[in-house]
Design a protein that fits this description.
Helix content is about 35%, strand content about 15%. It is α/β, with parallel strands linked by helices. Strand 3 (about 100-105) and strand 4 (about 105-110) form a beta hairpin. Helix 4 crosses helix 10 (about 295-310).
Length: about 350
């Protein structure tokens, strides 16, 4: 382990005590958090029922080339999954959503907000919007903090109805879960200290130790590049963590030289700590989607309808959430808004 010094400047984290909080968040992320509160093309929408069977989604995953297009057309119809959610009684009648609680501006608890800090951020806004559509109450959400490497298992085990947690749509994940249409465009980037001579995803990473989150697209991309012989010489990928924010802590402690993660997340982390910065441009194009069980066709369709409405709502929709949470850390909303969704053909 390198004898690195602790970098200062974590925005709004309260110094040393906040660092302890950051280091401990992997444990806290397993707790239940109750609350009351890629390459797209053109294509139209379809409000017609539940026509595509689960088998069609499975075949699409096996033949996957454009994962962000492997989703069902929007519909407002109810179905067995939605009926089950609505049948919950009393205090349990809530949408159960897997989220992050440590991603600044996406899903996080602001320690400076006072009292019982509520979860807030771009992903949290979307979860409230989905709950409002399904249950008629945007506050009827039960949030569960899910580590990066537990997003798929949490869906498969039925611990959550869906995951809204900066989750990239890709072909491997489509074998295990179903995704909504994309709601955000991003790409993998390098995060490193401003003082580092690293310039991006290039030869300046040679011999460096990189941190990634287990189960993340960043790790799978780097491992594939290593297998293809395109990873810079001597890059060390041994450091993986359960939650992506743990990589920022490792970087601050001097235990790694750089972090690779989604540029949208990296920009938020750079806003937290002014001693680090994004290095170079994104070297992939990826899309975030809402993840659900593979057989939850009615829920997938309903979420896709919500996303279309959220995107079109100029008063309180996608752009409003972007302006509120991300405009200070991202340079251009147009780069982050996905293309018009294209859905699986019904046959």
């Amino acid at each position: 382990m390198r004898a690195g010094r602790l970098r200062t400047g974590l925005k709004g984290w309260g110094g040393v005590g906040a660092m302890a909080l950051a280091c401990a968040h992997a444990v806290l992320a397993a707790l239940l958090l109750p609350m009351v509160h890629a390459h797209g093309g053109g294509g139209g929408t379809d409000d017609g029922g539940h026509g595509v069977a689960h088998g069609s989604q499975a075949r699409a995953a096996q033949e996957c080339t454009d994962p962000e297009k492997q989703t069902l057309a929007p519909s407002g119809d109810d179905g067995p999954t939605i009926d089950e959610i609505r049948s919950r009684e009393g205090e349990k009648r809530k949408l159960i959503v897997g989220v992050d609680q440590n991603s600044y501006r996406w899903g996080y608890r602001d320690p400076n907000s006072g009292g019982d800090a509520e979860l807030e951020g771009f992903d949290i806004d979307l979860a409230h919007r989905i709950a409002e559509d399904i249950l008629g109450d945007g506050d009827a959400v039960q949030f569960k903090a899910i580590p990066t490497d537990q997003r798929v298992p949490a869906i498969q085990d039925g611990r959550v109805d869906m995951v809204v947690r900066t989750m990239t749509i890709n072909c491997d994940r489509l074998e295990d879960v179903a995704f909504s249409a994309p709601y955000f465009r991003t790409g993998q980037q390098v995060l490193a200290p401003k003082s580092a001579k690293i310039t991006g995803y290039d030869g300046t990473l040679a011999g460096k130790e990189i941190c990634t989150a287990a189960g993340s697209t960043a790790l799978s991309t780097l491992e594939q590049d290593r297998a293809d012989g395109t990873l810079p010489d001597g890059v060390d990928l041994r450091t993986t963590v359960p939650n992506q924010l743990d990589c920022l802590v490792r970087l601050q402690l001097g235990e790694v030289d750089a972090v690779v993660t989604d540029g949208a997340l990296a920009a938020s982390q750079a806003a937290q700590d002014p001693t680090v910065e994004l290095k170079g441009d994104a070297f992939t194009t990826e899309y975030y989607g809402v993840a659900m069980k593979k057989d939850a066709d009615d829920l997938v369709r309903r979420v896709n309808r919500v996303l279309e409405q959220w995107r079109a709502d100029r008063a309180g929709g996608w752009q409003h959430s972007y302006d509120r949470w991300l405009s200070e850390t991202m340079d251009d909303a147009a780069k982050s808004l996905p293309p018009t969704p294209k859905y699986l053909r019904e046959s």
